[in-house]
Amino acid sequence: MNNLNTTSQKQETITWVGDAQSGHLVLIDQTKLPGELVTIACRDVESVWEAIKMLRVRGAPAIGIAAAYGVVIGLQTLSSDATDEAFDERVNELTDYLANSRPTAVNLFWALDRMRRLALDKTGLSIEEARKKLLAEARDVHEEDREMCRAIGRHGVALLGDVEGVLTHCNAGGLATAEYGTALSVFFTAQDQGQHLHVYVDETRPLLQGARLTAWELMQRGIEATLICDSMAAQVMREGRVQAVITGADRIAANGDSANKIGTYSIAILARAHGIPFYIAAPSSTFDLTLAHGDDIPIEERNPREITHGFGKQTAPDGVQVYNPAFDVTPAEYIDAIITECGVIQPVTEDNIREVLGVV
Ligand code: MRU
C-alpha cells in the first residue's frame, strides 16, 4: 500500500503482472483517492467485473483496457487440454459477463469485441498459444490508448490556442485511460509546451470524480486548479474566468451526439449561452457509428444511495424517491469540436466524423 503523502513513485492506473497463464491485473483503486493511493490485485474475472462496476477502475478507455485483461484472467481457469468448443464457450461467457458490468462507455464493448474476435479465430493454436495471443492483444489495447491520448493532447493544444482559463467536468485524465488522459491530455501537453493554464474543475456530483480525481491529477502535475461545485459553472463563465470547456466522452454516436458524465450537457448549454467553445476530447474507440444519434445510447442508472448516502453520510430522508442517471447526452449542435487522435472534427457532422476517423 502506498500512502499518497509519502510516495513520489509514479503508479500506473492499470498494470499487468506476469504471464498469460498465471499473471494478474493491478489497478489503482480510484474509490480511495485522493486520501490514499492504493492498488488492488485482480486474480479472477469476478474481481475485474467488480472493479469496473464499483468504479475502482473507471473512465471509458480504462474500463476497456481492464476488461481486455479480464478476458485473459478468465481463461486461466480453462484446462490446457480443453476442446475448441469449450474454449469458444468460455470466451463468449467471459465477454458477455464483463460486458454486463457497465452499459454506457462503448470502449468496454469495443475492447471486448476485439478480444472475442481474436479468440474465436484461434484456428490451429493450442490453448497456451491462444492465451499468449490474447494477452498480447490486451497489451496492444493498453499501449494504443497511451498513444491515442498523447496524440489527442497535441491536436487539442493547437485547437485551444492562447487561452488561460478552462473548465472541465468529471475526470478524463490519466486515471481514466492508460495514461495522460483525453481532456486532461490537452492541459498536460499545454503545460509541457510552456503554456500557463488555470483549470476550473467541476466537483462532479454525485461521486465527485472532479474533486477527488481531476483536482488531484492536476495538482500532482503542478497545474493551477480551482475546484467549484457543479452549480457554480454559470457564474464562473459569466465572470469571464474560462475561455474554453473540454470534457471527455463515454460514447459518441454517428451524428456526434456525445454521452459523458451527468452534468456535461448542462455545461455545454451554459458554454453556448456565454459564447464559450465547448470541446470533447476522445479516442476513436469512443465512437459508436452503429448508433445514428444519441437517443440510442444506453444511460447507466446507478444505486440511489450514491445520492442519499454519499460517502457514507445520509443526506436525504429515508424513503425519498431518487433518479440517478450516471451520464447524459450532449447534442452535437452544442459541441464546437471533437478532438481525436486522428485530428479535430469541426464542425461536428457525420461526414466530418467519418472523414477524420477514416471510416467510410
Ligand atoms: O462514471 P465514470 O467515472 O466512469 O465516468 C467517466 C466519464 O464520464 C469520463 O468523462 C469519460 O469516461 C471520459 S474518460 C477519458
Structural description of this entry:
By secondary structure, the protein is of the alpha/beta class. 39% of the residues lie in helices and 15% in strands. A 7-stranded mixed sheet has the order 6-5-4-7-10-13-14, with helices on both faces. The protein has a 4-stranded mixed sheet with strand order 11-8-9-12, with helices on one face. Strand 8 and strand 9 form a beta hairpin. The longest helix has 34 residues. 5-S-methyl-1-O-phosphono-5-thio-D-ribulose binds next to helix 2 and strand 9.
Helix proportion: 25-40%
Ligands in the structure? 5-S-methyl-1-O-phosphono-5-thio-D-ribulose
What is the number of beta strands?
14
Q: pLDDT below 50 for ≥5 consecutive residues: which ranges? A: 1-9
- In N-to-C order, the SSE pattern is EEEHHHHHEHEHEHEEEHEEHEEEH
Beta-strand level of the residues, as a percent range? 15-25%
What class do helices, strands and sheet pairing give?
alpha/beta
Number of DSSP helical runs: 11
- Name the overall outline: globular
Radius of gyration: 20 Å
Q: What is CATH's topology name of the largest domain?
A: Rossmann fold
Order of strands, main sheet, comes to 6-5-4-7-10-13-14
Give a short synopsis of this structure.
With 360 residues, the protein is of the alpha/beta class.
SSE diagram, text form:
Blueprint lengths: L13 E4 L6 E5 L10 E4 L2 H9 L6 H16 L8 H16 L6 H14 L7 H34 L4 E4 L14 H10 L5 E5 L6 H12 L3 E5 L4 H6 L5 E4 L3 E3 L4 E4 L2 H10 L4 E4 L5 E2 L16 H4 L18 E4 L6 E4 L2 E3 L4 H8 L3
Parallel strand pairs: 4-5, 4-7, 5-6, 7-10, 8-11, 10-13
Antiparallel strand pairs: 1-2, 2-3, 8-9, 9-12, 13-14
Helix pairs in contact: 1-2, 2-3, 2-4, 2-5, 3-4, 4-5, 5-6
Bound molecules: 5-S-methyl-1-O-phosphono-5-thio-D-ribulose (MRU).
5-S-methyl-1-O-phosphono-5-thio-D-ribulose (MRU) binds next to helix 2 and strand 9.
